């Protein structure tokens, strides 16, 4: 059953979505339950299990990739970042082992947003803790590989604001670039890298919003803002009630709830 709309301007969270912590527990349990299904115990198998479990998690597709509109789901952002990172790694001549670690790190790089949505540095710290929780019980992956993934995945930002979590090594900067290119697919961005520029002219997650009686399309044309409409105090934080007529590619009819 599709939700009636979106209930929070900043979290952009579907009403029928489980709490982030519950989603993470489900993901962990499904990974652990699948690790002994006649698979080889190697990085390739872990990457496949992780990819399958994330794809099967419907709630992950209802969690936003970012607080800025327009957005795509967290699942699709994780998946596209991992794919782009592997492609960039192939172009750089990385070996198979490094490509697998890049894929795993890409699939987990923003998982901390399940616990800390909309919080810059905190989602990185939570992501590191969550990845440690998962990898600490996957004892058939070598300590060296677990340690490497645990370091690589959170370091996908280039800004100095992230301090010790800033991307510095070549593979960390590559993951950061993949993250930026992935984000450009659902925003009107230009992303520069060594060999050229990726331009995003179309957005994959358009939103037709009704705010204060005005209809605003986010994700098409040039308009991205909400004009002079101001947020107001609601509960414990600032919020902006609105009705989103396009969620999961379908039109939602009825009054905002």
From TrEMBL:
Protein name in the entry:
HD domain-containing protein
Family annotation (InterPro entries): HD/PDEase_dom, HD_domain
Entry's SUPFAM superfamilies?
Answer: HD-domain/PDEase-like
Q: Name one Pfam family in it.
A: HD
Give me the segments passing through the membrane: none
Q: Give the HD domain ranges.
A: 74-184
Query: Do you know which Gene3D superfamilies this protein is assigned to?
Result: Hypothetical protein af1432
**Naturally occurring in which organism (per UniProt):** Candidatus Syntropharchaeum butanivorans
């Amino acid at each position: 059953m599709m939700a009636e709309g979106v209930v929070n301007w900043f979290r952009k969270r579907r009403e029928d979505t489980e709490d982030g912590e519950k989603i993470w527990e489900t993901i962990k349990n499904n990974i652990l339950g699948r690790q002994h299904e006649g698979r080889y115990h190697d990085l390739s198998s872990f990457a496949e299990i992780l990819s399958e479990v994330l794809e099967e998690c419907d709630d992950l597709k209802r969690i936003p990739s970012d607080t800025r509109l327009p957005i795509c789901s967290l699942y699709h952002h994780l998946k596209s970042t991992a794919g782009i990172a592997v492609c960039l790694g192939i172009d750089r001549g990385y070996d198979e082992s490094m490509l697998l670690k890049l894929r795993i790190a890409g699939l987990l790089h923003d998982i901390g947003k399940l616990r800390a949505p909309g919080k810059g540095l905190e989602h990185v710290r939570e992501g590191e803790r969550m990845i440690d929780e998962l990898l600490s019980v996957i004892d058939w992956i070598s300590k060296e590989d677990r340690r490497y993934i645990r370091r690589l995945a959170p370091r996908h930002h280039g800004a100095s604001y992230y301090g010790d979590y800033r991307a510095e090594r070549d593979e960390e900067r590559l993951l950061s670039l993949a993250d930026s290119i992935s984000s450009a697919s659902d925003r009107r961005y230009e992303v520069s890298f060594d060999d050229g520029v990726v331009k995003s002219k179309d957005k994959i997650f358009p939103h037709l919003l009704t705010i204060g009686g005005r209809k605003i399309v986010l994700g098409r044309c040039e308009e991205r803002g909400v004009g002079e409409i101001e947020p107001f105090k609601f509960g414990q934080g600032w919020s902006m009630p609105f009705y989103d007529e396009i969620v999961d590619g379908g039109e939602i009819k009825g009054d905002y709830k």
